[in-house]
UniProtKB/TrEMBL annotation:
PANTHER family: IMPORT ATP-BINDING PROTEIN
Organism: Pedobacter duraquae
GO CC annotation: plasma membrane
GO molecular function annotations of the record: ATP binding; ATP hydrolysis activity; transmembrane transporter activity
Name under which the protein is recorded: Putative ABC transport system ATP-binding protein
InterPro entries with a match to the protein in the record: AAA+_ATPase, ABC_transporter-like_ATP-bd, ABC_transporter-like_CS, ABC_transpr_LolD-like, P-loop_NTPase
ABC transporter domain mapped to chain residues: 2-209
Keywords, sorted A to Z: ATP-binding, Nucleotide-binding
Origin: domain of life: Bacteria
Record's keyword annotation contains Nucleotide-binding: yes
Length: 209
């Protein structure tokens, strides 16, 4: 369960962005809708422990996440939250498998090569395990980003505009993968988008205005 309570944030020199209270139950799949500049990325950063809001609290289960020490918060994020950014950013000097192993290490977990292989296989990209990011297509890199986000079996899977730079066919394919992976890993899913094409795939929506 994730709960947003009385949260508002102000960047210096801008108007405050207020967020409605929001309760997300475990396993639910949500779409976070809003136009460009409405605060979607800000809200995802607040939800995932990257940005402490000026006002309000964020609870994940019973933990008020901004009351953790920053070291604890980093570890908490690594273990419980998987994030897929708009553009994949992998470490270029590491292979695909090594990038996923690094995600395990960052979370303070033991290396689990079997899990790495399993996740890559579930996304049909295991044949690229020993390849370097620069040799993969955008679509393949998007799959690797999803694999890296789910490798530690996060309770919460977050994607920030994962479809905005894709054509219809690829946009729906990526959404299918996110929905499938959240089901497979029993993870709560929150996908931010301004892309109305994807609205019908979700039953729950939180809209920013
Ligand atoms: P979205 O992801 O919906 O496009 P953002 O959360 O990125 O919206 O931005 C919300 C608002 O906050 C915008 O007006 C944006 O210009 C502003 N903003 C975002 N990040 C910063 C920042 N680091 N410093 C100042 N203003 C910011
Ligand atoms: Mg954004």
């Amino acid at each position: 369960m994730i709960e947003l309570k009385s949260v508002a944030h102000t960047y210096s020199g801008t108007q405050a962005i207020k967020f409605r209270d929001w309760k997300i139950n475990n396993g639910e799949q949500w779409l976070l809708l809003g136009g460009s500049g409405s605060g979607k990325t800000t809200l995802l950063h607040i939800l995932t422990g990257i940005l402490k809001p000026e006002i309000g609290k964020v609870f994940i289960e019973d933990t008020s996440i901004y009351e953790l020490t920053s070291r604890k918060l980093d570890q908490f994020r690594g273990r419980h939250i998987g994030i897929i950014f708009q553009r994949p950013h992998l470490i270029k000097s590491l292979t695909i498998a090594e990038n996923l192993i690094l995600a395990q290490t960052f979370a303070g977990l033991k290396t689990d090569q079997e899990r790495v292989t399993e996740v890559l296989a579930s996304l049909d990209i295991d044949h690229k395990m020993h390849a370097y990011p620069a040799t993969l297509s955008q679509g393949q890199l998007q799959r690797v980003s999803i694999a890296r986000a789910v490798v530690n079996r996060p309770a919460l899977l977050i994607a920030d505009e994962p479809t905005s730079s894709l054509d219809d066919k690829n946009a729906f394919a990526v959404l299918d993968l996110l929905l499938q992976q959240s089901g497979l890993n029993q993870a709560t899913l929150v996908v931010a988008t301004h892309d109305k094409r994807v609205k019908d795939a979700f039953t729950n929506t939180y809209e920013l205005i």
